[in-house]
Input
Amino acid sequence: MDHQTSNAARPVFLHGAWRSGSTYYWSRFRAAPDTMCFYEPLHHGLARLTPARIARGGADAAAALRHPALSAPYFAEYAPLIRGRGVRGYRASLAYERYHLAEDEPHPVLERYIGGLLEHADGAGRRAVLGFNRSCGRVAWLKRRFAPFDIHIDREPAAIWASYAAERAQGNNAFFSLWLRVLEANQTHPLWAPLADRLKPRGRLRRRLTKMGPAHRDRIAAMDEAESYLLVFYAWLATAPTSMAACDLVIDDGLAHLPHYARRLEERIEAQIGVRLDLSQAEARPARIAIDDQIRRRVEGEALALFPRHALRRQPAPRQVWSNQLCPRKLELIAAVS
Output
């Protein structure tokens, strides 16, 4: 089914891993006039969202996560779509199950839900901007149905791990836990099965018999630096290259230090979709915790050896396509799984 908006404003879909810088770019679109920006449209919390829960996601929550200052709570745009409890059309299974979709694979629940968000924005005369963190295995599927302008926001995998590790050091296990949830829900998928064999996540029966919070806390506490980086780096291999291949634009945090990089992004986005952004505060954020370089190299080699290249549904674009959009190390990593 093709979904068309009644005006010429093409929707914008942002894709990236947790702690990749995606919230910054989403906030910049939110600041643009005539946009309606939905934060994390596949977030598991949308199934039980209420006005009170929306209110709790304001300035204090953003500061705690080192996110940019918010003009309104994260989930404010969903308020008109709440009927008692939960966002209209959303199902909790959308957050983690079927994390990868082939372009021609039917998924009517997801299609109706995303279509409903676009229709809501269109009805208000605004351009829909969806800031995803759970979409990288479904970008091509989404593009085929909704024809958005897709932007992949990427960050060095070791820097993503460092952000998760810094949060864990402060008692926040959420980000490692999120990838464990993805792995548990997709452990039989060909892309994830090798990692599941290596890390032994809870199976269906254990998930029914044990509570996720304590189980994940114990599992994460038992992970050393190498094993936790294996989870993060493998997840990047399984999601980022195929997401980039389906996107219209790639933003690489590793290039943000270059002169005029942000300005070139502003110009390209305005030229292609007519949205003027202020990206003057874009920057490569220093890691708060650094992974040992020997461990990093060893784990990356292990992940590349485990990774089932044949299972990629959509092969990454040729190296030259991204030669001016990604830093050299990422080009090498992507070439290794192409």
Summary: The mean pLDDT is 91. The chain has one domain: 12-337. Residues 5 and 122 are 6 Å apart (CA to CA). The first strand starts at residue 12 and ends at 15.
